[in-house]
Design a protein that fits this description.
428 residues, seven-stranded mixed β-sheet, 15 strands, alpha/beta, Aspartate Aminotransferase, domain 1
Length: 428
């Protein structure tokens, strides 16, 4: 088993003194993140430097506006912080314009609507059950309430995006905006194909790269820059930054994007988050990050192959990126049951719908796993067969209701995790 974390009084002395209850919860989360195998593809470990940046005195500043054009005084340092983040984003992703102020991915996407559409306009996005995101015009989202959402899907036989359907819908519906990207898309996104369709119908193409931004920055996934008008992304996930977001675009769209973010949707930016984004982007520009991005993909491919060898059904048959979507129908274990059992075994995943899922979203047929976090800890392809074995044993234990088996797996997981310290976590 892994060694206990340092006490809260040592790792967070001020917090422990002011609020011992909250400090204890932080310490418990540190222990949990250290001891478990985190396979949720949208999660990661940030560096100690990113963590430090989020806790600086930049938290104390209000800075409505943009660098050199603020509505508050005392911005001498803040303007430089934001400029650093903007210039690093432009360099890492090769874009003409970057806005680093969006609070998160959903507000960033909403800003794209505000910039390029009017309420009631048609938008075309990937259907949520097929791997898309709520903010791509899905009905329960504000984007599907305020705008007319039309959804494309995947081919039943391959689970790959049906570009014939995308093109036919675009020609028929004439959307103002087309979204590409998603939250459960295990294959390479063909940005060129989307760009061709968008140009044909005179739509703005928004590439939502929240999940794959780090892979793009590290050259492990094609970039949307030559094809998309606007690029939306979170700054955590594979990019290993803080919980924030960015909107990037062609120079011709800069004014519309900036106006939509502020004053359109937001007040003052979160300057401590902006600083942490700048740190993460500096890290992403290093050669070692390129190695990391490619290792994430290599691990995902190796894990997918090991699961296939154990008889698991993978949506699209495998993966090209960081994400593997598993259909558990043939294992006769619902995704939610499997996910909760794996959690008790120290393997953190999320239950997820699969394309054409006959089950309800809150009790779906699949689980979604990914390799960003374990790669950040230094696990390589040689460890992926063991990870697949643990998943298999956990699913089998879930089917049998065998809690003792889950306890055994949890001990094995904690022992291995102790050999791979996580970035940013306090050491014993």
């Amino acid at each position: 088993m892994s060694q206990p974390r340092m006490s809260q009084s040592l790792s967070h002395p001020a917090l422990s003194a002011a609020d011992p209850e909250l400090a204890a919860l932080v310490g418990a989360e540190e222990q949990l993140q250290a001891d478990t195998l985190r396979l949720i593809p949208s999660e990661n470990y940030v560096s100690a430097a990113v963590l430090e940046a989020t806790g600086t005195v930049l938290q104390n500043k209000y800075s409505e506006g943009y660098a050199g054009r603020r509505y508050y005084e005392g911005q001498q340092n803040i303007d430089q912080v934001e400029t650093l983040a903007v210039e690093r984003a432009k360099a890492v992703f090769g874009v003409e314009h970057a806005n680093v102020q969006p609070y998160s991915g959903s507000p960033a996407n909403l800003a794209a609507y505000l910039a390029f559409a009017e309420p009631g306009d048609t938008v075309l996005g990937m259907a949520l059950p097929m791997g898309g995101h709520l903010t791509h015009g899905w009905g329960v989202s504000a984007t599907g309430t305020w705008f007319r959402g039309v959804q494309y899907g995947v081919r039943p036989e391959s689970a790959l995006i049906d570009f014939d359907e995308v093109r036919d819908l675009a020609r028929k519906e004439r959307p103002k905006i087309i979204f590409c990207g998603g939250t459960a898309v295990p294959r390479t996104i063909d940005f060129a194909a989307f760009g061709e369709i968008a140009r044909e119908v005179d739509a703005v193409l928004v590439a939502d790269i929240a999940h794959i931004a780090g892979l793009i920055a590290g050259g492990a996934h094609p970039s949307p820059v030559p094809h998309a008008d606007v690029i939306s992304t979170t700054t955590h996930k594979t990019l290993r930054g803080p919980r924030g977001a960015m909107l990037m675009s062609r120079a011709s769209h800069a004014k519309a994007v900036d106006k939509a973010v502020f004053p359109g949707l937001q007040g003052g930016p979160h300057n401590h988050t902006t600083a942490a984004i700048a740190v993460a982007l500096r890290e992403a520009a290093a050669p070692s990050f390129r190695d990391y991005a490619h290792a994430v993909v290599a691990n995902a491919k190796a894990l997918a192959e090991a699961l296939l060898a154990r008889g698991y059904d993978l949506v699209s048959g495998g993966t090209d990126n960081h994400l593997v979507l598993i259909d558990l129908t043939s294992k006769e274990v619902p995704g939610k049951v499997a996910a909760k059992a794996l959690d008790r075994a120290g393997i953190v995943v999320n239950y997820n719908t699969v394309p054409f899922d006959p089950r309800k979203p809150f009790d779906p047929s699949g689980i979604r796993i990914g390799t960003p976090s374990l790669t950040s800890r230094g696990l390589g392809t040689d460890r992926m067969p063991l990870v697949a074995e643990w998943i298999d044993r956990g699913v089998q234990a879930a089917a049998k209701g065998d809690e003792d088996a889950l306890t055994v797996i949890r001990g094995e997981v904690a022992e291995l995790m102790a050999a791979y310290p996580a970035p940013g976590l306090p050491t014993a």
